[in-house]
């Protein structure tokens, strides 16, 4: 989860998020190079006394300053497209989680099993245990196995919500009357936190997501206990 002082991205818990972080860093390096170059060029303009009253055109220079940005953009666009299509790939999931956004809580359905469905509400600050995370902990966590391809179906019952878990690289809108699909693969066990990220009403900030990543045996035991 994100703690104090974490201004960048959280560590990834899925191969896709790992790729997203690589792409972020790649774009950031290009961005910094451009900023430094343009910053240097602009600052030199203040300190030189160059004047050329007869300058009308500079074909070579214009070719260079047109082609260079175009090539730079291609270096961003190609990895971006690769990631876009990679994120869209559902593969052959062995488990399906259906999540439904409500004002203002999430409800979950494990449609591979009979009658496994529950609501997940934020724990109010007053009821929070001493080691609880304020505005982030829920009464019923989503439990899922790691090292397993999971299909995620997202929808909503009233207004648009968005099921967003940063460590997974998952951010899918829940839209009433529509069923959105994505998938993810968790690389390690742990507790992973997320929040709704569509402005869905007065208590938008108070419908967090807690995902419990466990091994397959623990998951099966949990399913059996439902
Ligand atoms: Cu649901 Cu914001």
UniProtKB/TrEMBL annotation:
One of its GO terms (cellular component) is mitochondrial inner membrane. Its main location: mitochondrion. The keyword Membrane applies. Pfam families: COX2, COX2_TM. One of its GO terms (biological process) is ATP synthesis coupled electron transport. SUPFAM superfamilies: Cupredoxins, Cytochrome c oxidase subunit II-like, transmembrane region. GO terms for molecular function: copper ion binding; cytochrome-c oxidase activity; oxidoreductase activity. It is found in: Mitochondrion inner membrane. Component of the cytochrome c oxidase, the last enzyme in the mitochondrial electron transport chain which drives oxidative phosphorylation. The respiratory chain contains 3 multisubunit complexes succinate dehydrogenase (complex II, CII), ubiquinol-cytochrome c oxidoreductase (cytochrome b-c1 complex, complex III, CIII) and cytochrome c oxidase (complex IV, CIV), that cooperate to transfer electrons derived from NADH and succinate to molecular oxygen, creating an electrochemical gradient over the inner membrane that drives transmembrane transport and the ATP synthase. Coiled coil: none annotated. Keywords: Copper, Electron transport, Magnesium, Membrane, Metal-binding, Mitochondrion, Mitochondrion inner membrane, Respiratory chain, Translocase, Transmembrane, Transmembrane helix, Transport. Binds a copper A center. It is a multi-pass membrane protein. PROSITE patterns: COX2 (PS00078), COX2_CUA (PS50857), COX2_TM (PS50999). It comes from the Eukaryota. The chain crosses the membrane at residues 20-42, 63-87. Component of the cytochrome c oxidase (complex IV, CIV), a multisubunit enzyme composed of a catalytic core of 3 subunits and several supernumerary subunits. The complex exists as a monomer or a dimer and forms supercomplexes (SCs) in the inner mitochondrial membrane with ubiquinol-cytochrome c oxidoreductase (cytochrome b-c1 complex, complex III, CIII). Its cofactor is Cu cation. Residues 92-225 form the Cytochrome oxidase subunit II copper A binding domain. It catalyses: 4 Fe(II)-[cytochrome c] + O2 + 8 H(+)(in) = 4 Fe(III)-[cytochrome c] + 2 H2O + 4 H(+)(out). This is Cytochrome c oxidase subunit 2.
């Amino acid at each position: 989860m994100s703690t104090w002082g974490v201004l960048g991205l959280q560590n990834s818990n899925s191969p896709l998020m790992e790729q997203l972080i690589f792409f972020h860093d790649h774009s950031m390096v290009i961005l910094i190079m451009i900023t430094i170059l343009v910053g240097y060029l602009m600052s030199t303009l203040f300190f030189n006394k160059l004047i050329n009253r007869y300058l009308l055109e500079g074909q070579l220079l214009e070719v260079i300053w047109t082609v260079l940005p175009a090539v730079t953009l291609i270096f961003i666009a190609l990895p971006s497209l690769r990631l876009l299509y990679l994120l869209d790939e559902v593969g052959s999931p062995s488990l399906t989680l259906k999540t439904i956004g409500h004002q203002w809580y999430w409800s979950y359905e494990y449609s591979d099993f009979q009658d496994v469905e529950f609501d997940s509400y934020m724990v109010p600050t007053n009821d929070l245990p001493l080691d609880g995370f304020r505005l982030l902990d829920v009464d019923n966590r989503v439990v899922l196995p790691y090292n397993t391809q999971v299909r995620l179906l997202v929808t909503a019952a009233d207004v648009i919500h968005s099921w967003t878990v940063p460590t997974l690289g998952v951010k899918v809108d829940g839209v009433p009357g529509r069923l959105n699909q994505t998938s993810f693969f968790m690389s390690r066990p742990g507790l992973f936190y997320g929040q709704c990220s569509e402005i869905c009403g007065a208590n938008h900030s108070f419908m967090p997501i807690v995902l419990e990543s466990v091994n397959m045996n623990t998951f099966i035991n949990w399913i059996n206990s439902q």
